[in-house]
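thread: overnight batch results

M.L. [08:02]
morning all. the overnight job finished for the chain we discussed friday. pasting input first so we're all looking at the same thing
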Amino acid sequence: MVPRPNQPVYLDNQATTPCDPRVLAAMLPWFTEQFANPHSAEHAMGRQAEAAVEQARAKVAALIGAEPREVVFTSGATESNNIAIKGAARHAAAAGNPRWRVVTVATEHKCVLQSVTDLRAEGFEPVLLPVRPDGLLDPELLARALAVPTLLVSVMAVNNEIGVVQDLAALAALARQEGALFHTDAAQGFGKIPLDVGALGIDLLSISGHKIYGPKGVGALYVRRRPRVRLAPLFSGGGQERGLRAGTLPVPLIVGLGEAARLAQAGMAAEAQHLAQLRERLLDRLSASMPGLLMNGSQVARIPGNLNVTFPAAAAADLMATATGLCVSTGSACSSAELEPSYVLRALGVSDAAAARTLRIGIGRFTSPADIDFAAEALARAHAKLAHAQIEA
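M.L. [08:03]
and the structure it wrote out:
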């Protein structure tokens, strides 16, 4: 194994992805030469910026089968999730809608869980459904929850820790059948798996730029027009983005998101095949060197670039400290500083002891076979060293 000083192998692509050089190239002119405010339509430079925003909007819409005017730009998926969940609830309450139940899943991203539970203070009934041991929501369980009139169901497309892909079509159909809105946090699925909001029956969908090799600080919310989904904005301003998200739009970031979406749409199938091959290569090598290694979550319904594995004998924190030159994580980037075991793994029935031996490995567009080999050897050596130390102790 050859050390790579100052050039670590990055395998944490569920936390964030590097900005694709093609995305950066598309963004740069809008920072320097074409810097006008897109809302200054009185002059040529403002109109050029406005046109760039609309071109990016069309690219994002094309990746999810939406109309461009159904895409609202935000600062990222966290804001999109808050607008979708709180906005739908507050508009419904103001309109006198008698439905007060909001249903989500125990393994959702923290921003969804918090948005839903925050609504309790406003009189809503939050319901958190458990998942099966494979990380997937049982549609029958959702159907039983929907027996009580429900305003909104929120189920993420792809889990950010274990990479499992929920059956959105089946779940959305159940929600629609019972008259509930269906929202999905698609931050980890956008650009990685096919998503067609019309075919899937989705009313609201959240997007993040930095998960698909775009810039941080930009995202989008899909809001269905027909039948129209109505939301209350979270804050007031100048009426930008159909009045749902006030504030001057960051043209360079939006251009970057649009270019990232275009690249994802063009290369999704080939990239998925490439990532799946790398994942199997890594899993095979880890399993061969560490008998008893376990992969968490569905073996089939998952994105190709994710591995969430429990090691036989060594703590995840010790593995990361020992396997120098390798960037992996213990779970959600938003929660990784916490000492508590992953709530996602707990929801799968994984013990706290096993969760403490679990790493999330995220393979990405720029991962090479050499990176995979380096990671396999680094983790195997680290595990052997730590296991031996435990025996000696």
